[in-house]
Write a structure and sequence with these properties.
mainly alpha, 6 helices
Length: 138
């Protein structure tokens, strides 16, 4: 694994800085009407469906041209509404990529952290990169 210089990443020192940065880059997202299909799709994605949808979004070879329908068949049966929402979220994420490398802290259950540390997968001070879709609760 290639070592990355930590100073290359933007880190927010307080919530106010993070909120200002978010408004600078994503004010259109933050202003989505709560009853819109885009808002509901993103909300659904950042909630209970993030794990299943992330797997599909990360591993599906092609979202377009029927690729999603073929790939997701094992996950969602024939739920056309979820497939429509996944396509909406994918398009939304493509239009709103993060403009710079940032440090993101995420909550992890203590039980899982203990398991990872006892298996010597993680050590104190270790940094790693997750190359996947980012779910951010609104």
């Amino acid at each position: 694994m290639k070592e990355v210089e930590y100073t290359q990443y933007k880190e927010f020192l307080c919530a106010k800085d993070a909120e200002e940065w978010a408004h600078t880059h994503y004010s259109d997202v933050l202003a989505l009407p709560k009853d819109s299909f885009a808002y509901q799709s993103v909300l659904y994605y950042t909630g209970s469906m993030s794990r299943q949808w992330n797997k599909v979004l990360r591993l599906c070879p092609s979202i377009e041209d029927g690729g999603l329908e073929k790939y997701a068949a094992g996950y969602f049966a024939s739920d056309g509404e979820q497939l429509r929402m996944i396509k909406e979220v994918n398009g939304f994420i493509r239009q709103h990529s993060v403009p710079e490398d940032i440090v993101v802290y995420r909550y992890t259950h203590r039980k899982i952290m203990k398991k990872l540390c006892s298996a010597r997968i993680l050590r104190q001070g270790m940094m790693f990169t997750e190359k996947g879709f980012v779910a951010q609760h609104w």
